[in-house]
Amino acid sequence: MPVVTFSIDGEQYSATEGENILEIARDHKIHIPTLCFLDGLSTLGACRLCLVEIEGTPKLFPACTTKPTEGMVIRTNTDRLKKYRKMIVEMLASEGNHQCAVCIVNGHCELQDLAYEVGLDHVRFPYLYPDKSLDATHKDFVMDRNRCVLCTRCVRVCHEVEAAHVWDIAGRGINCEIIADMNQPWGTSPSCTSCGKCVRVCPTGALFEKGAAVGEMHKERGFVKFIVNARKKREWVRVAPEDE
Ligand code: SF4
Ligand code: SF4
Ligand code: FES
């Protein structure tokens, strides 16, 4: 496979053509904040938290969907990037209802972690206080759309890993929201297997288990990469004795 050479934050690196900037940065312990990205799922470039600068263009590029080319000069941590990342978190905070003190994932929330990381101590934009629906019709889980940041991890894991494709996005702009099947109560979805994968990958308290109290809900997200890798290596395929 062809190899490309480029620089990140002043250091020279090379990588196989086709790898994206985020993967390469992580391999070399360079931290780039993310929200919609999850190892093992397809990349989407939805949240824009991972924006990087590329010399020679005023545009900013999402590291998770951009592949380096030969000689590219990439910067991941400039004042301009920090300003935009903070603004993105600020907009997410003002757009939903994120009252951490009464949230089931308080202390285990990726949006909360990002707010700390970018130094968000106040929000300059008016709070929208949306009045979105909460769906508690599933026997085990709840979907609170007020805490959804539309990262679509739930949509992707349900489609790509569980192959059930329960979730989709309906609406446009500020009215976008996650819906189950034909926009019906989750509990009536004939396609949901109740596997819980969507709940575990959700970065916020939008998806949670029934019965969990404030701050109790931990999310284990590494399982997606584990399953996807095991499938690629056919680790769970039984080999008949005569084939060995
Ligand atoms: S519980 Fe499993 S099948 Fe049901 S919506 Fe979530 S990921 Fe899809
Ligand atoms: S429910 Fe959670 S995983 Fe799904 S889009 Fe909203 S924030 Fe992302
Ligand atoms: S992590 Fe790259 S755009 Fe969301």
Summary, kept brief:
The chain has two domains: 3-77, Ubiquitin-like (UB roll); 99-231, 2-Layer Sandwich (Alpha-Beta Plaits). Helices cover 23% and strands 16% of the residues. The chain is built from six helices and ten strands.
Features:
244 residues; alpha+beta; Ubiquitin-like (UB roll); 2 domains; five-stranded mixed β-sheet; globular; binds iron/sulfur cluster; binds FE2/S2 (inorganic) cluster
Q: Tell me how many strands there are.
A: 10
The CATH top-level class label of the largest domain: Alpha Beta
Mean pLDDT value:
94
Radius of gyration: 20 Å
The 3D shape can be described as globular
Strand order of the largest sheet: 2-1-5-3-4
Largest sheet: 5 strands, mixed
Task: Annotate the secondary structure layout.
Layout: E1 3-8, E2 11-16, H1 21-27, E3 51-54, E4 60-62, E5 73-75, H2 79-95, H3 110-118, E6 134-135, E7 141-144, H4 153-161, E8 167-170, E9 177-180, H5 197-201, E10 207-209, H6 223-232
Parallel strand pairs: 1-5
Antiparallel strand pairs: 1-2, 3-4, 3-5, 6-7, 7-10, 8-9
The structure holds iron/sulfur cluster (2 copies) and FE2/S2 (inorganic) cluster.
One iron/sulfur cluster binds next to helix 4.
Describe the structure.
The protein has 6 helices and 10 strands; from the N terminus they run ββαβββααββαββαβα. The mean pLDDT is 94. It has 2 domains: 75 residues, Ubiquitin-like (UB roll) (Roll), CATH 3.10.20; 133 residues, Alpha-Beta Plaits. Helix 2 packs across helix 3. The protein is an alpha+beta fold and 244 residues long. It binds iron/sulfur cluster (2 copies) and FE2/S2 (inorganic) cluster. FE2/S2 (inorganic) cluster (FES) binds next to loops.
